[in-house]
Structures are given as structure tokens and as C-alpha cells.
Amino acid sequence: MKVLVINCGSSSIKYKFFKMPEEHLLSKGIIERIGEAGSNIKDHYTGLRIILSNIKEVEAIGHRVVHGGEEFKDPVLINEGVIKKIRQYCAIAPLHNPANLEGILACKRLLPNIKQVAVFDTAFHQTLPEYAYIYGLPYGYYKKYRIRKYGFHGISHEYVANEASRLLKEPLRKLRIITCHLGNGCSITAVHKGKSIDTSMGFTPLEGLVMGTRCGDIDPALVSYLMDKEKLNTREIDDILNKRSGLKGISGISNDMRVLERKASEGSKRARLAIEIFVYRIKKYISAYTGIMGGLDALVFTAGIGENQTRIRKIICKDLFTYLKKKPKVLVIPTNEELLIAQKSYRLIKKD
Ligand code: ADP
After folding, report:
1. Residue 152, domain member (yes or no)
2. Is the pTM of this model over 0.85?
3. Domain of 46?
4. C-beta of 311 in contact with ligand 1 (< 6 A)
5. How many angstroms is it from 259 CA to the middle of ligand 1?
């Protein structure tokens, strides 16, 4: 079965085309600058039409969908009901779900007879226990607005946890794993017996680690304090926390770790500080998750920084596990979210 995997962002479409179950990659590509000034690709429909004009014999389509709320714990075949739900979740994932939905609707128009599957970035974290996903807020807000920790990057965390089990030749049910997805967005997950039991991102991807441009954990009282002092509206404060903070905000230089490493080695104090804060926060999360799992069998690094930046991995691991009797294996595993989407889509359609 030939499965096309689509990952629609707000201004881009990434795709990979697989022959399953052999997992043979037939082609891949990216279309960028969709809808931007000067671009001749005005929307996702146009972008997908271009992609599909180069790809023949699509038998199934798998979509990455960022937010599946509490409804979607597993991949689903897309029908009108599913589309309605994904549309509803646009309210809590306004930066991601609308683009995912555009991709689904465009594929429906272009290939109306081909089955489509939605694989959700939140689904892997739906196994979190209640005490890990309920915030210390009035409980009524959970009931009224479904405010809770959802967690993201689930497809990547699940993929690398599976790979860790394969590489270690141990079944997931016997493993305590911490997966660190360190890219521009960063998150970390405790995977106990194959299940996500805690993860650093929250109701939105803003919580947790210090990221390229996102602040991660801060005192929530700072939001109203800053709004007051700087006379900011909600959109402006959101912009500061999501786009002007993190490595970029602290260093005042860049959100790109490669640039910061170079600047730090040339003597920039703020670049060095940004890296120190980034690493320190990761160490805190790893220590906390090791604690709740009562030990650790494997620590996995993935995504841009996790896969490529040896020095950062080294300073994260330095003195981290001195108190453990048995040291965990440290693994670097390139993530492949598209492959997991293809595997899940293939299995679901075959069963169907
Ligand atoms: P995204 O979350 O946007 O997919 P990436 O996973 O590509 O981002 O991660 C971006 C980060 O990874 C940047 O901080 C960059 O410095 C780092 N990075 C990406 N590729 C490399 C590389 N080949 N060598 C070193 N660092 C890299």
C-alpha cells in the first residue's frame, strides 16, 4: 500500500511518500511560503495540487494533526464527524489545527476516493494520569473549557521510544525511558512501560523547557505584571512569550543553537547564559522524571539539537546520574514522525 504522509503547517506542507509495510521511502518534499506575499502558492489546496501532480498511485493519506483534545487517543479514519471535532479544537490550537484541517479538506477535494487518517500529536500523552494533567486551578475550568495538560510532539516521543526499545532489545513494558525532543520547539516525556506518564508541554506548547523562542515555565503572575507595566494586550503578551523569549530572548542574538554555541565560544556572556539556562531546565526535568519513575533505563535525544549537538548532550548528561546505582543508556535517535504516521495509517486502513 502506498501511503502519502502530509504535515501541513501554517505556511508550509511537508510530505513523505512510503510503500508500506516495507517502509520504503519513495519520495519526499516540502512546499514553503504558502500564502505569503510574492509567493505563487496562494493556499494549501494549490500546494497539495502541485505535490499530487508529481505523485502517482496514492492509496492512503496520513495527516499529522496537532490537537486531538481528549477525544482522540488513537489514530482515526477521517469522516465528517472527525473533521467537525478537529475544527472545534482550532479554538485551543489556533496556530496549528486550522492548517492541518486545510490539508485534509484539500486532499478530500483532490482525491475524494482515497481513505485519509488523522494521527494526533496529543494522542500519545492521553495516558497521563489525572494528577499529572490537572492544573492547580479551580476545577470548574477543566469542566468548562477543558483546561488541562495535553502535551505535544507525541508522535516524535512515541517513535523514538519504540526505536529505543528495538535498539535495546527490551520490550517497552520493561523500560523506563525519558525522551528529549530538542528542536526549535522542545519537550521532554517520561515513558513508563511504553506509556507517556508526564510531559513538559501543557495546555499549549508554551509550557516546560526553554525553547528557541518560547519561555517555557515561568511564574504565571508575571503575565499580568508585564501586561500592566508594558501596557500590553493579550495578543502582545502572547507574542512575547511565544516568539520573543527562550534562547532568542535571553541571548538577544538568535534562537539557533548553532549560532549561540559559536557566539559563546567567542566570548558572548548572554549566549553562554542562554545555553546554561536551556541545559539547566532540561536537567531539572530529567531528574524529576527519573524520580517519578524510580530510576531510568534509557535517555533518548532527538530533533535538531538532540541529534546534532554533541556538546549540549554532554553537558546535559554531566553529573546527572551520579546518584543512580545503574546508569541509563544514552541514545541518539533521529526522529521520523512521518514514518510513524505511515505505520499507523497503514495498520488502521488494513484493519478497516
Ligand atoms: P524544528 O523544531 O523547527 O523542526 P529542528 O529540529 O530543525 O527544528 O531544530 C532546530 C535547532 O536544532 C536549532 O537550534 C539548530 O541550531 C539545531 N540544529 C539543527 N540542525 C543542526 C545541525 N545539523 N547541527 C547542529 N545543530 C543543528
Report:
1. no
2. yes
3. 2-120
4. no
5. 11
